[in-house]
Amino acid sequence: MWLWVGKYPRAWQGGTGSAKFGGNYSSNLLPEIEAGAHGCDLVLYLDNDGYVQESGTMNIFAITSEGELVTPGLGTILAGVTRASILRLATAHGLTPVERKFSFDELKRCCISGKIREIFAVGTAAVVNPIIGIKGPDCEFTVSDGLPGRQSLALRDHLLDIQYGRRPDPFDWMVEIPLP
To answer: How many CB atoms lie within 10 A of CB 88?
Structure first.
């Protein structure tokens, strides 16, 4: 999946970005059309200061060469269930979860240098979507070798295996609903 870095922020401090609110999704329509016009699948939203927020309607993660699983902190982004699940699964995959602000400039620089090895977006319907490249008005670069990352796919499989009962659920996420 390729991301387009456009000119539209998705949310502002003090706004509704952290709420499951229809207006947060309808405002994605124009930027998504722009992304498609540039051959990209989704938009990478930045705040007004150039810090990474989300991708379309999904939370963003980056895996560093030091084994950190970095995602933007909460405030203007949705505290998604899949986001929280991936943060809980991180240590089982040798990753240290880190929630902090990071700028697009840092993301770009670390992708190009190899410090960031994988980027992926998560959401309820999408589960885990590996990001293989990013384009913008003034840049275009691939993430690592331009293929879906091994750890991203392993996290996806782990979460799906719990959801489908193929793997134990040590977190008590699954609730059996009795049939009438």
So the answer is: 14
pTM of the model: 0.87
Sign of CA dihedral 122, 16, 28, 26: positive
Judged against a pLDDT cut of 70, whether residue 101 lies above it is answered with yes
Flag whether pLDDT at 124 surpasses 80.
yes
d(CA 158, CA 131): 18
**3-state secondary structure (DSSP) of residue 123:** strand
Residue 24 has pLDDT above 90, yes or no: no
Integer CA distances (angstroms), 32 to 52, 123, 128, in order:
17, 17, 19
Rounded to whole angstroms, the Cα distance separating 32 from 105 reads: 22
The C-alpha atoms of residue 141 and residue 75 are separated, in whole angstroms, by 28
Is residue 97 within a helix (H) or strand (E), and if so which, with residue range?
strand 96-99
pLDDT grade, residue 11 (50/70/90)? low
Q: Which among 113, 122, 163 is positioned nearest to 1, based on CA atoms?
A: 122
